[in-house]
């Protein structure tokens, strides 16, 4: 009898990364560019890096990868300063060296049978959605047609602008977009309760439901939802997915100590074929089926 083993998660590399640049945005948000060739070559949408914030701080921080360029060997990370460690990271300047462990985690698995990928990102959960949008744009030949929806209650960590890409079925006046997606030719729209110009006034999940509600059944059958953000937003995404009968993958953001499966500090309860069980976000995730994480989200 042949033993069955779970798929290997892939190699994790320890690198001495060089800070290439760092941009500051309102609300304590920062976009950090690092030269980390091994991580950049192997990163996939949904994977993250475990980063040392300063030489004298031994505890690493898990941060989602927003973009990866294997040609230049660079990755991009969006984060918000919360706590002493990330405050120190915000002080990093070009030429500084930071220890990075990555890429880590099982990422999103796009379904070619549902090429209309609805990407929902909230707050610092936006980075994996940008990465996924970029990957799907490169697979346009496979029929993928992503739409990115992003929500934030503080100013967005990029310069918003009116979109030039028409998206039928969205509420009137919802015209602000994410410039990175716009430049890729991927439609996107923004949502906020803060009254930002051009944004949908409400939660990003309400914007998603408004768009889905206007789709004919044949088009709706081509949609799958992918999401990352605060837990309440992910639970709301699970409810929207159930309402419209759609598959939904969610990327969880948990505090981690080791990030390689040794400490079980990031374990979450999920539904499996055998019942409820504890799974480690760093090894078994961070991407899970929404129904497994939020079984009562209906």
The CATH class name of the largest domain reads: Alpha Beta
Q: What are the secondary-structure elements, in order, as H or E?
A: EEHEEEHEEHEEEHEEHHEHEEEHEH
Quick one: how many beta strands? Answer: 17
CATH homologous superfamily of the largest domain, by name?
A: Nucleotide-binding domain of ferredoxin-NADP reductase (FNR) module
Integer-rounded radius of gyration: 19 Å
Shape: globular
Ends: how far apart? 41 Å
Enumerate the strands of the largest sheet in spatial order, edge to edge or round the barrel: 12-11-8-7-13-14-17
Mean pLDDT: 92
Total of DSSP H or I helical runs spanning 4+ residues: 9
Written description of the protein model:
The protein is α/β, with parallel strands linked by helices and 298 residues long. The protein has 2 domains: 13-104, Elongation Factor Tu (Ef-tu), domain 3 (Beta Barrel), CATH 2.40.30.10; 116-293, Nucleotide-binding domain of ferredoxin-NADP reductase (FNR) module (Rossmann fold). The chain is 22% helix and 32% strand. The protein is built from 9 helices and 17 strands. The chain has helices at 37-42, 84-89, 126-137, 179-184, 204-213, 217-220, 231-244, 281-284, 290-293; strands at residues 13-25, 29-35, 48-51, 61-69, 74-80, 97-104, 116-122, 147-151, 161-162, 176-177, 188-192, 200-201, 223-228, 248-251, 267-272, 275-280, 287-289. The strands form 4 sheets. The chain has a 7-stranded mixed sheet with strand order 12-11-8-7-13-14-17, sandwiched between helices. Strands 1-2-5-4-3-6 form a 6-stranded antiparallel β-barrel. The longest helix is centred in the C-terminal third of the chain and has 14 residues, at 231-244. The radius of gyration is 19 Å and the shape is globular. The model is unreliable at 1-8 (pLDDT under 50).
């Amino acid at each position: 009898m042949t033993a069955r083993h779970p798929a290997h998660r892939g190699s994790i590399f320890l690198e001495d990364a060089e800070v290439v640049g760092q941009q500051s945005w309102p609300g304590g948000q920062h976009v950090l560019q690092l030269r980390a060739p091994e991580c950049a070559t192997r990163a996939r949408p949904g994977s993250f890096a475990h980063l040392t914030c300063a030489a004298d701080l031994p505890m690493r921080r898990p941060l989602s990868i927003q973009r990866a360029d294997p040609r230049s060997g660079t990755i991009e990370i969006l984060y918000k300063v919360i706590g002493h460690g990330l405050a120190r990271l915000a002080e990093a300047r070009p030429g500084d060296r930071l220890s990075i462990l990555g890429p880590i985690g099982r990422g999103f698995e796009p379904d070619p049978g549902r090429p209309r990928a609805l990407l929902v990102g909230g707050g610092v959960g936006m980075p994996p959605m940008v990465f996924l949008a970029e990957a799907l744009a490169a697979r346009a030949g496979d029929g993928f047609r992503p739409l990115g929806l992003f929500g934030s209650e503080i100013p967005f960590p990029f310069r918003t602008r009116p979109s030039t890409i028409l998206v039928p079925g969205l509420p009137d006046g919802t015209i602000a977009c994410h410039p990175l997606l716009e430049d890729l030719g991927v439609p996107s729209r923004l949502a906020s309760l803060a009254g930002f110009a051009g944004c949908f006034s409400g939660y990003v999940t309400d914007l998603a439901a408004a768009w889905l509600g206007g789709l004919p059944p044949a088009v709706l059958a081509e949609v799958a939802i992918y999401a990352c953000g605060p837990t309440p937003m992910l639970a709301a995404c699970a409810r929207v997915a159930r309402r419209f009968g759609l598959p939904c993958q969610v990327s969880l953001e948990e505090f981690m100590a080791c990030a390689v499966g040794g400490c079980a500090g990031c374990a979450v309860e999920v539904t499996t074929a055998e019942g409820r069980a504890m799974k480690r976000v760093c090894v078994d995730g961070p991407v899970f089926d929404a129904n497994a994480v939020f079984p009562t989200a209906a």
